[in-house]
Design brief:
Blueprint (H helix, E strand, L loop, with lengths): L2 E2 L5 H6 L4 E3 L3 H6 L6 E2 L5 H14 L1 H13 L2 H11 L6 E4 L5 H12 L3 E4 L3 H12 L6 E6 L5 H10 L3 E2 L2 H5 L17 H14 L6 E4 L4 E2 L2 E2 L2 H9 L2 E5 L2 H12 L4 H10 L1 H4 L1 H12 L3 H22 L4 E6 L5 H8 L4 H14 L1
Parallel strand pairs: 1-5, 2-3, 2-4, 4-5, 6-8, 6-11, 7-8, 11-12
Antiparallel strand pairs: 9-10
Helix pairs in contact: 3-4, 7-10, 8-17, 12-16, 13-15, 15-16
């Protein structure tokens, strides 16, 4: 069956099946897009700028004419791309910035190929409003705290494997949240796209309670946690995990020890003022000697003080503490999920928050 349905609102558009095709320019797409979308740009970055300039200086009619000229030679390749994306009669979910001419033009091209199409009402702009509204909804959050090196991220992954709802703030940001957090990680998304990823992760957990996430500062590398979600994290109940110092150092050496001397030296120098001259010098000497454990110990003094200050601020929200020394992530997850009064309390509160 070919043709297009009336434009759909964001919820219906996201719930539908078929590839999401973003026809905006590559630069717009890189800044932020619907997670999982494919970019099939009608205009290149330069072409979009040209059309925009003509629109402002000479009016809409001449801008449309220029657009038609720019797109004309691309029609065969665009048509082939649409055919490939719609393989096996999949509905093409198309959108541009406002749901206007770009997506309409691509929908027309798809219709000439007898391909089924679904358009997003209001385009990506409407989607972005929906994303920001997501963070103002009440979510049944449960914050996982613990000092640096206690393996919180590995524990979150183990909780997910056991069927728990998890939002991985650091994983979505491609950053571990400290001066060293970007080492060995892919490039970070823009804050805009980070918000899109977070909204997708939260809505995928809708109906589950609680939703676990890691205690973080307001910024994970260059990605800022949305204000609505950050506020809810500050009000959410929390549990703390603890591990012996030797295990924490071993964990950090395993994560960062293969990053190389130069990267570790630069990351250490970025926090030199906070470490103080003596600890900075000791850490840099240890890094030069490839003594990663000694270097870690100098860092942990600073990061532990930061964590303890944050813990004192959240003391009223802390429900329980767990010493997970000697337990691998799966065993640690099992320990956290054992029936206990605190768990029953948080599940009850989560049901209220998510209702």
């Amino acid at each position: 069956m070919s043709g297009s349905c009336p434009p759909q609102d964001v919820n219906a558009f996201l719930a539908a099946e078929g590839p999401i095709v973003d026809v905006r320019s590559p630069g717009e797409f890189e800044q932020g897009h619907v997670p999982g979308a494919v970019n099939l740009p009608l205009f290149s970055n330069d072409e979009r700028a040209q059309v925009g300039t003509v629109y402002k200086q000479q009016g809409r009619q001449l801008a449309v004419q220029l657009g038609l000229e720019l797109v004309g030679l691309k029609l065969p390749s665009l048509a082939q791309a649409l055919l490939e994306l719609a393989d096996a009669d999949k509905t093409l979910r198309l959108h541009c910035w406002r749901g206007g001419m770009r997506s309409g033009s691509m929908a027309w091209l798809a219709s000439t190929l007898e391909l089924p199409v679904l358009l997003l009402e209001g385009g990506y702009k409407a989607y972005r409003r929906w994303v920001l509204e997501c963070f103002e909804s009440g979510w049944p959050l449960l914050v996982l705290g613990g000092r640096t090196g206690t393996g919180k991220t590995d524990l979150l992954h183990a909780l997910r494997q056991r069927g728990q709802a998890v939002v991985d703030l650091e994983g979505l940001a491609n950053h571990r949240g400290s001066s060293f957090g970007g080492l060995g990680q892919p490039p970070q998304p823009s804050t805009e796209h980070y918000e899109n990823l977070l909204a997708a992760s939260l809505t995928a957990s809708a109906g589950q309670a609680p939703i676990w996430l890691e205690a973080e500062s307001a910024q994970v590398g260059r990605c800022r946690i949305p204000a609505g979600l950050w506020r809810q994290m500050g009000e959410a109940p929390a549990v703390e995990i603890q591990r012996p110092m030797a295990e924490r150092v071993e964990q950090l050496v395993a994560v960062y020890g293969n990053q190389g001397e130069e990267y570790l030296r630069l990351a250490t120098e970025r926090i030199a003022r906070r470490l103080g001259p003596q600890r900075t010098a000791t850490a840099l000497e240890a890094i030069a000697a490839h003594d990663w454990a000694t270097a870690c110990l100098q860092m942990l003094d600073y990061y532990d003080r930061c964590y303890d200050n944050e813990l004192s601020r959240r003391a009223k929200a802390l429900l329980a503490s767990f010493d997970l020394g000697g337990l691998d992530p799966d065993a640690a997850a099992a320990e956290l999920l054992q029936p206990a009064p605190w768990w029953e309390q948080v599940c009850g509160e989560s049901v209220k928050a998510g209702s």
